[in-house]
Each structure stands twice: as structure tokens, then as C-alpha cells.
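Worked example 2:
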Amino acid sequence: MTEKLIFLARRASHLSREEFLRRYLDEHAPLVLQHCPNLRRYIVDLVDVSREKRDPPPLEEHATVFDVVAEQWFDSLDDYTDQARRFGSPEGAAAVEASEAANIGAMVGYQVIERVHQDYERSWSDGERSPGVKLLATVRRAEGITHEQFVDHWLHKHVPLVFKVLLGTWRYVTNEVVAPLTPGAPEIDGIVEVHFRDIRDRRFDSPEGEKLMMEDVQQFLLQPTRNQASEYVLRS
């Protein structure tokens, strides 16, 4: 068993989105790989597909608007929270932290329970862009229900409905939030990943299926903001 952590990062205000994404993938992520010896898996998702360009929102809105999602796996949570275990050396820690300070305007992190409901078969190498488009959204439970009720509905009612009425899904992952990792992280209940090999394949089986989905969403969660991203599996 490994621990999965998800970080939502927003660019520094002096950087364009394009420049930030380039720096994150080409400069920052290689530093993380180089200096974090206990990092078992590492995926970087760049929100670069068909998203409206806009100025960074206030921090409290950060849970729905971000530029990069970093997915990291460690053998234990201590391998991340203990800096002596996260980084291979003080110099490595300084290099990663300097890169974060220069490029990231805000970042929040969460410890999650990952459940892969449908997986693709990878035929491409680490570092290559994954085919298709990955939809990412933070989800928050509706008013009047508990986190436990939300998770029960999400896993046992909503997910089966997705596979019944939504066509074109290539990979589907739910991430139940266990705890925040960063101070001031907005309260959310989960993060969902839906990968399509071709975004044009994303459609409902019928108008009735779409209506069922909308009605179900209203029962247990607040309307999420979906972000379309390019996925890079950097260490598998």
C-alpha cells in the first residue's frame, strides 16, 4: 500500500499560464524527481486544454481553479511530511523550494484514498504526454449531508451511473480526501479524474441518461468546475 497525495498549484502572478506550465514540466518536475528519492510514482497534469484564460482568483477559490495538478505516491505519509526523508539532501530541498518560490503563487495539498474504477492500458513511456484529455474536478458535498454520506453516494450510486450513461470514458478515478496537507487548504471531499482518449467521445447515451446524471449530481454534491488537462506520467 502506498499513500497518494494530490497538490493543486497556481502560477505566480508574474508568469503567464503558458510560461508557468513550461517551467513546471521542464524545470520544476525534474528537480522533484532528482531530489525526492522516496517518491514512488509521479504524475503531472497541466491544465492547458480549452480553458478560459483568467487572472488567478482569491486563494479561497483555489480548490476549483488551478494550473497544475501534481499526483505523488509515497510508501508512507512520513516519507513526505518528514523533510529529511522527502529530500535526498539539504541542497536538494533548497533547490526544490527555490523553484516553488519562483514559480508557484499558491499551492494546496491533500492526502487522498485513490480508487481506480476503470484503467487504461499504457502503451507510451514515462515522460510522454498521455493520449487524449483528462478532466479533473474538486468536489464538495451538498449541504445537509456528511462526508461519509457523500462518499457512500459517490461510490455506490454515482459511479455506477457514470458507467451506465456516460460514453467514451477511458479511465475513471475517484480520490476521497482524507486530510489537508497544507495550511488553509479549502475544505473539499474529493477529486475526480476522468480520462477520455478523445474528448469528442464524451457524450451521454441518451437525453434521459443526461437527465438522470444531472439529477443525481444535485442530490449529493455542489456543482464542480471541470478542468481539462494534459497528463504526463513522469514516474510509474
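The CA atoms of residues 29 and 44 lie 8 Å apart. The domain at 3-235 is CATH 3.30.70.100 (Alpha-Beta Plaits).
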